[in-house]
Design brief:
Rossmann fold; Alpha-Beta Plaits; six-stranded mixed beta sheet; transport; binds adenosine-5'-triphosphate; 11 helices; 307 residues; 2 domains; four-stranded antiparallel beta sheet
Length: 307
């Protein structure tokens, strides 16, 4: 649906986004994660059509953004990092105004649907400057979902929200993702862990990693605990082809078995159990170890994950 090829954006001498490429095909939630200044907002602005790339190509359904600006605009909704709200307007008037600017047909219905989708019905007649930060953020999302776009671009949607408001925002994003592709940017790792099916990690303008969260969670090590550690067991484990390395703590009867990248952890666990049974070591426990996103981030960028 959306494809970026060697997308680049420079601001004078600063290269904010440097030749990044990715494809986003299906509904679901994709997280763009990185430190402050990594280039996330610049990518989001280009995806929204607000900013032109300096070089590279951006297409939606095979159509060049630059050549089909109107169609692209109609297919997406954008929540910028700085909320585009008019504080003195009533929520309903503001949404009607945005619907007019977007040139939506059946404006009233579009506004009603946006209010419903974001659970803002009871605040429709409130003046925006009387709303809490969380509610204002919700109005920002409401203007993005006007006209039911297929693509939602949400730049730091959890910005400035307290934990409860953040939980509401996450529930809202999950609901919206049932009928649209959501791309959200964040510098908060837990946000990606909680919400996203896929993560793009940006580091100093470069795309450091593009991975499905399920693949990242796929275990790559096994923790084995036995009652009577012995040399014979160690030899048996070393002989298994799917094991790339062993870190052992014999006094505790523990072995951390690092698996080769292409190995299947379930099959490996079966073979490890057989190897244990072939010795007198006595199997106590065998469990897959999850690689957390923090580790993945550190490995991809060479720096600690943002707090
Ligand atoms: N309008 C601009 N003019 C000049 N430099 C800019 C401009 N906008 C962004 N930059 C620079 O481009 C780089 C990437 O900025 P960008 O806002 O895209 O990063 P970000 O990952 O979204 O960071 P944050 O989370 O702090 O918003 C930074 O070095 C920033 O200073």
């Amino acid at each position: 649906m959306i494809e970026a090829q060697s997308l680049t954006r420079r601001y004078g001498a600063t290269t904010a986004v440097n030749r990044i490429s990715f494809r986003i095909e299906h509904n679901g939630i994709v997280g763009l994660l990185g430190h402050n200044g990594a280039g996330k907002s610049t990518v989001m602005k280009m995806l929204s059509g607000y900013l032109e790339p300096t070089a590279g190509l951006l297409t939606m359904d095979g159509r060049d953004y630059a050549l089909s600006y109107r169609e692209v605009q109609r297919s997406l909704g954008y929540l910028p990092e700085a909320l585009p709200l008019y504080p003195d307007m009533l929520v309903v008037d503001y949404l009607d105004y945005v619907a007019t600017c977007k040139g939506l047909p059946r404006r009233r219905e579009a506004v009603r649907e946006a209010l419903l989708a974001t659970d803002l019905g009871s605040r429709a007649l409130a003046r925006i400057n009387t709303l809490s930060r969380g509610m204002k953020q919700r109005v920002g999302v409401a203007q993005a979902v006007l006209g039911k776009p297929r693509l939602l671009i949400l730049d730091e949607p959890g910005n400035g929200l307290d934990p409860e408001q953040n939980q509401h925002m996450r529930d809202l994003i999950r609901r919206l993702a049932r009928r649209a592709t959501v791309i959200l940017s964040t510098h908060i790792l837990q946000e990606v862990d909680a919400l996203c099916e896929r993560v793009l990690i940006m580091d100093r303008g470069l795309l450091a990693l593009d991975a499905r969260m399920a693949d990242l969670r796929h275990s790559c090590s096994l923790l084995l605990r036995v009652s009577a550690p012995c040399e014979a067991l160690r030899h048996a484990l070393e002989a298994l082809p799917m094991i790339a390395g062993i870190q052992s703590q014999p006094d505790r009867g523990e072995y951390l078995l690092l698996l080769r990248e292409d190995s299947d952890p379930d099959a490996a666990a079966g073979e490890v159990a057989q190897a244990v049974h072939a010795t007198a070591a006595g199997l106590v426990a065998l469990q897959a170890q999850r690689k957390d996103l923090e580790t993945v981030f550190r490995e991809a960028t060479g720096s600690e994950a943002p707090e």
